[in-house]
Amino acid sequence: MASEDQKFCLLEVLDTFKLCLSENKEVYLEHYVAGWRGLVKFLNSLGAVFGFISKDAVSKIQILVNFLNGEHGSQYVTIQSMVKYELENKLVDQKKQGSHPESGCRTLLRLHRALRWLELFLERLRTSTEDSKTSFMCAEAYNESLAKYHTWMVRTAAGMAFHMLPGRPAFFEVMNVGPPEQVVAILGKALPLISEVYQITEDLYAQHNLLDLP
Ligand code: 1PZ
Q1: Pocket of ligand 1 from Cβ distances under 6 Å
Q2: Can you spell out the DSSP letters for 140-189?
Q3: Ligand 1 centre and the CA of 161: distance in Å?
Q4: Which of 16, 63, 68, 126 has its CB 3.0 to 4.6 Å from that of 187, i.e. a possible disulfide?
Q5: CA of 174 to the centre of ligand 1 (A)
Q6: Which CATH architecture best describes the domain 8-207?
Q7: How many angstroms does the Cα of residue 198 sit away from the middle of ligand 1?
Q8: Which of the listed residues 146, 156, 172 should we mutate to test ligand 1's pocket, taking the one with most ligand atoms within 8 A of CB?
Q9: Is the ipTM of this complex over 0.95?
Q10: Any idea where the domains of the chain sit in the sequence?
Q11: Nearest CA residue ID for atom 30, ligand 1
Q12: Where, if anywhere, are coiled coils annotated (predicted)?
């Protein structure tokens, strides 16, 4: 059983993504990372078979947290300032892995790509009907987004894990916000926020040619 503070609540994640955007539309890394923490909590509450996924997410979150709390933490306040700082100081391996295999830019890019999966998956959930299959919606969203960045091994493991997802009613229950109509309503509020954070990051990375970082 997950302990109380481990318990996922969709509202909480919604709130963190709300906090992500500054007035001039920069993305606060602290809240971005907190949003991911919430999602990992959710994933963990779905069962141990998702452990290999949450483990990777957690290690990426940790890399970013270390930057935030590190000596140059003030450069990592927003994704925009991180990109600027790491590029100006040549802290990013641009073409192939070299002396900076765990830059903030490349690490965040992995989560950013996963955010696109999340967006696609949640949109499917939001518009799904009672008899829709979560595993199918999840696989579709994955194939349209993250799959192309993953090795055959990871794709296969992910495909197997998707089959272990609970059905739509149980899935909605784990979200912990009330009856299905309420879940759908909250998804409707959360999605535009997630999309906006995604798009701002995507544009920033495109502008700096960072979308294919090794
Ligand atoms: C609700 C069901 C959850 C399905 C999650 C769908 C995503 C499946 C991703 C499986 C990949 C996990 C194994 C690690 C892969 C890594 O190789 C890649 C690339 O990193 P690199 O090797 O270049 O360092 N990692 C990722 O792509 C990041 C994946 C993060 C996934 C977070 C999912 C959070 C789910 C939230 C659930 C609401």
Answers
A1: 39, 42-43, 50, 52-53, 56-57, 110, 114, 117, 138, 142, 146, 154, 158, 165
A2: HHHHHTGGGGS-HHHHHHHHHHHTTSPPHHHHHHHHTSSSHHHHHHHHHH
A3: 11
A4: 126
A5: 20
A6: Orthogonal Bundle (1.10)
A7: 16
A8: 146
A9: yes
A10: 8-207
A11: 57
A12: none
Structure tokens given for 178: 């009330």
78 SS3 class: strand
Token readout for 134 is 């979560």
Per-residue buried b or exposed e for 117-156, using 16+ beta carbons within 10 Å of the residue's own CB: bbbbbbbbbeebeeeeebbebbbebbeebbeeeeeeeebe
AA identity, residue 35: G
Task: Say how many Å lie between the CA of residue 112 and the centre of ligand 1.
Answer: 10
The pLDDT profile of the chain, 214 residues, written as one tens digit per residue, is 444 555 677 788 888 999 999 999 999 999 999 999 999 999 998 989 999 999 999 999 999 999 999 999 999 999 999 999 999 999 999 999 999 999 999 999 999 999 999 999 999 999 999 999 999 999 999 999 999 999 999 999 999 999 999 999 999 998 888 999 999 999 999 999 999 999 999 999 999 999 999 9
